[in-house]
Structures are given as C-alpha cells and as structure tokens.
C-alpha cells in the first residue's frame, strides 16, 4: 500500500486537481518533494497573490483549485483575499503545512498554533486530521465539501511527518469518490412560480453571480424573452449573468436601499435569481422595496436565503430552475421590449489623461468579443457597465467582498485556465499594489494575460465615498508617483505607459498578439462619480 502522500496525489488527480498554487516553507517540503510529473506547481511570491491566482483559476475554470500555504504566516497573508472567495463561492481546497505532530504542543518554530481557528470564519470547514492515517479521508472530505452547494473554500492543516506514514488500505475507496445534491425545484414550486410570473402585471428579473456560475446565462435570456421583462444585475456584482446588449438589460442596480427601491418602483413582482437580497454598500435608510412589490428569491445558498431582510426564498439549483421556468411560463403576454439604446458617447480626451469611459469604449472596439474581464478599479465601475458589450458566460469577475488584491493575480489565474480566451485585467493604481508580485508568476510561466493599470494617482472610490459621507479631505487617499512600467519590468513583464487613444490602441494591439504577459499603464482622469 502506498503512503499518505501517494494516496493524496491519487485523490487529487481523480478530481483533476493537478495544479498546485503555493508558496513553500519548511513544513511543506516533504509534500512537494518529487512531485509526480503530471502535477504542476505554480509559485506565487506572496500568499495573497497565491490565493487570488487560485481563485481566478477556479472561477474561470468553473471548478475547484488546490492551494498550499506555509503554516500560520502563509495562511495569514492569504486571508485578506480569502474574504472574496467566500462570497464568490469559490471551491478552494487550501492546505497548510504544520510542524511535526509530536512538537506542536511545544510551539516549536513555524508551528501553526490553534491552526483550525486561524482561517475561521472565512472557510466552510477547517480541520487538522486527528492522525496521519486520516489525512486521505480528510482531503477527500475537503474536496467534496468545497464543491457541494453552497460552494466555498475549505482549510486543512497537515503535519509534515504525516506524508510518509503508511496509508490505511481503505483509502483506495476515496479515489474518484463523488457527492452531489439533488435540490431541484419541485413540480409544485415550479407551478407556483410560473403562476406568480404569469399573474404579475409588471415583473422584473434581478440576476446575480450564481446564474453565471451555473452557466445559465442563455436560459436567463430565454426566461426574459418569454416574459418580455426587464433584467437588472443585482448590486455589487462579482460576475455578469446576462448579455449587456440584450433589449431586456437595464444595468446594475445601485448598492443603496433608497436608490434601488426607486429604480424598481412600478414592479409588482421582483424575482431575484442567484443573488443575495441584496449586497448593499452605502448606508441609505429607506424602504427595502417599492410600494406594492412582492420579492421572491431563488438561491443555492441557504445562508443567503435565511439572512435576507425581505421577501420569500426557495433554496434550489438555480441553473435548473431558470431553464425550467423559461419553458413553464406563458410567453408573449406582454409587448416586446424595444432594442437597446446606443452606448453613451465618449468625447476623446485631451491634455495627457484619458477618461476611463474612453478606455473601455476602445477596449470594446479592439478586444475580442469573448474576452474575459477581471476588474478591480473601483471608481470606474459605472463607466465600465455603460460601455461593456458582454455576451458570453464567464466574462466578468470582480472581488466579491470588495477585498483588494484579487484582481491582478486573479486575471493571471484566469488566463492560466483559458487557453483560448484573452483575459484582460482592469486594475486601479491603488488596487494593483496589493497583488503586484503576481506579475512575476505571469512572466515566469509565460501567461499571456493583459493587465491594464488605470492610473489616476488616487483611491478614487474612497474620494467618492467621502463625498457621500461628507467627511471632506481625509489623509491617505492619494497614491502619486508609482511607475508601474518600472515595477513590471523588474518582475520580467513587458510594459508600456500611454496617455492618449492612439498610443493605447497601438499598445493593446501589440499585447493581443503577444504570447507573453503585457502591462499597459494608462494615465486616467479622476472620475466624478462612483
Ligand atoms: N484594503 C483592502 C484590502 N481592500 C479594500 N477594499 C480597501 C483597502 C479600501 N479601498 C476600497 O474599498 S476602494 C479603494 C480602497 C483603498 C481604492 C482603490 O483604488 P484604485 O481604484 O486606484 O484601485 P479607483 O478607481 O481609483 O477607485
Ligand atoms: Ca486609482
């Protein structure tokens, strides 16, 4: 029988988890030594970048990712980015090396003291197996749990002397084990939902990231078409669940109670699919719903259903529900919606700074239609949605908890998952710094991602938030004097700085043809709105 390490690799392989995102230390060396040749190790230079690259890889791939961190210090470095993985429901299997079992109590150097408490409350489960022989089963349990709904990150701390121990013969049953939930809408629930939708005089759909995660975008179009109903994206979106040029598409709902209620006024039925109700941000007391509206939520996450402050909810497989509702409702009872209006026109910028909207309009024109956008430039979100022409599934990712440090490395991880789609990171000059070391990984592994740094010299979103709160001038809001081309070059990434449309398009075309990573630093205006 093989050892604990050998069976672990068999289990990982049987789930397609042959890419290890990590940053090693002494506790991890016995696991990594002599890695089987069908496994690849992707080294990140800081654990925040490691975690975000793994997250981007998992999101783009539509599957799980495996992470190996160094003890407590590595785990701690990864936790900021991990806040996003909870809300993006990313199935991440995070392992950390622990000191030799018999020495943990002495707290020898690099012991992960109280290891299972450390990553809480950001993981679905946290475990240090009771003995070496239980490591394979605990790994298997972690993989199943990460992938069962609601998906999410799990954590395992493993003493490094466990790997060479003999595995129990029963461990072979763990290889390729699968688990699934059969939580589809019942026939009665489907009938009631259809009756509700058919009976509504002015229904509206509010779609969330789970629709995109379940690849139900086209079924959402079928449902919207059958109902001839408007479609909004739920506030603070981390993914794009609906084509932005469809006649039903109305945009992204604002993340404040009052503004959201106002926009939905006149609707008697609000059907929220695959989103929390709601991910508000700015505090804006008011009525949760417009007068006379009923809210119904469909979600795969019991926590999302339970914590909503208003409305009724059904916990179910969202993709299946959308597909079945699209054929269950009575089509053609409302007039067809008019075609979409044109994009907001953008005047070409002058004076050595581009407006972000102009950058996004040029990207729409010159980037491939199926490009994958990973965005972490917080003040330009409105401009992005006004200019975006997103048509296919898995095309947009944003940090789901707003924790910066996701975007730049996640774009690199997403590109690693996509051999045939161009991934473009749209990263603010503030955000870029939290995960900047991932540039080295992109260069080292020749990952042909394009990173566009929008350089306005400030934490633009915080300036906007300050104006909302009336806090006036505040220290620590500007980030002048950062040369991202010098930083990128230092990490081995080709980089260019531009400040007008012509140079931008030139740089973009060159980057699209390159088989290696490129960073484009664009001098931009400070936007006037958030
Ligand atoms: N630190 C972390 C880890 N996450 C955060 N969300 C913040 C700090 C606070 N923060 C925001 O929420 S937005 C923002 C900060 C610092 C400014 C980001 O600046 P940027 O983008 O240059 O990336 P804009 O477009 O200038 O806002
Ligand atoms: Ca900025």
Task: Provide an overview of this structure.
Strands 2-1-3-4-6-5 form a 6-stranded parallel beta sheet. A 6-stranded parallel beta sheet has the order 9-8-7-10-11-12. Helices cover 34% and strands 16% of the residues. Helix 15 links the parallel strand 15 (423-428) and strand 16. The chain has helices spanning 4-14, 29-32, 47-61, 71-87, 135-147, 187-199, 209-213, 217-227, 257-263, 302-307, 318-328, 356-366, 381-387, 407-417, 438-444, 460-469, 484-491, 501-513; strands at residues 19-22, 40-43, 65-69, 92-98, 126-127, 154-159, 203-207, 231-233, 249-252, 269-273, 294-299, 312-315, 372-376, 396-397, 423-428, 450-455, 494-498, 518-523. The protein folds into 3 domains: 4-174, Rossmann fold, CATH 3.40.50.970; 187-328, Rossmann fold, CATH 3.40.50; 356-523, Rossmann fold. The chain is of the alpha/beta class and 530 residues long. The chain is globular. The protein contains 18 helices and 18 strands. The model has no long low-confidence stretch (mean pLDDT 96). Bound molecules: ligand TZD and calcium ion. Ligand TZD binds at residues 80, 377-380, 402-405, 428-431, 434, 456, 458-462. Residues 80, 377-380, 402-405, 428-431, 434, 456, 458-462 line the site of ligand TZD.
